[in-house]
Sequence to fold (376 residues):
Amino acid sequence: MTKRDYYEILGVGKDASVDEIKKTYRKLAMKYHPDRVAPEKRKEAEEQFKEISEAYAVLSDEHKRAQYDRFGHAGINNQYSSEDIFRGADFGSIFEDLGFGGGIFEDIFSGFGSRRRQGPRRGADLEYELPLSLEEAAGGIEKTINIRRGENCSECGGEGAQPGTKKTTCTVCRGAGQVGQSAGFFTIARTCDTCHGEGTIIQKPCKSCRGQGKVSVERKINVKVPAGVDSGSHLRVRGEGEAGAKGGPRGDLYILIRLKAHDTFERHQNDVYCTVGVTFVQAALGTEIEVPTLYKEKIKMNIPTGTQSENVFRISGKGFADLRGYGKGDQYVKVHVKVPTDLSGQQKKLLMEFAQLSGEDVRNETITEKIKKAFK
Ligand SMILES: [Zn+2]
Ligand SMILES: [Zn+2]
Fold:
């Protein structure tokens, strides 16, 4: 993969001032900060975050920028190690401003952030896609779902070592779990290869989890879906994700809602649309019809005299509840006027009479005959 141009990454001109570069980076950092995006986009956001941070580190430094302007990426890579690229850049003021700790850098630049620390670690988040009918989304519903997740092995208590055996401290990292060096404001750390960041070596792995400390378990989870959810809505179920390590808490479970297509209804934002058929007599004379709703009840709707086909009527408050609490959407009912087919002789006769009364010139002639007559 070819590396993208630093100016292009930040979206600034070649003559951008350091101040402008700082401002732009600050904006992008807020956008791509991995803590601020949906869990399924986190990996991607981390990559983007790394990319903008590197571009910022180089372009905000006079020497590195001059080097880059003259020789491009090669000029930077030949002269600076991956740690040195970031050395000296001012991330501190930006991140204090934004209320993020410098820890984000350790997480991202150590590459294997989650395995880095030796202390308690929070488990990973899980995502589950939940298909719902429009009725379920409208009314809200409680569902039981089956998920598979990692839980601490009960045999070894999540330690991974055969009960009764001990772990020894890793000699390569001396128990730190990482090897690395300080690079100014933050530490560039690499996970220790020998102990995979654990800081300890298991002498005799637990048989039941093969030393993983975790076993895969299927669980039933009750999910309360609030009324009004839409496709793409995320519900967070706290503490129902993957098990943490070393006594760390579980991750969260994210329920991603997907609405199924419906035979009768279509959703647009918080409104719902449907089409009902009426006969041409009903449309002409007016009537009251029953219209289905999303709420297990039919509702009576007035069809006024002289209703035209495709006229739309609004039933207030029968759409979806707004998730932010701004009331409810409406139901829009499009009336489709059905033209009768297979008329009996008697019906035809009556319609002819009707036409004559309306002053319509309807005889049993075809359109072509009519046109011919008109042009005589
Ligand atoms: Zn075990
Ligand atoms: Zn180690």
About this structure: The mean pLDDT is 85. The domain at 126-259 is CATH 2.10.230.10 (Chaperone, DNAj Protein; Chain A). The radius of gyration is 34 Å.
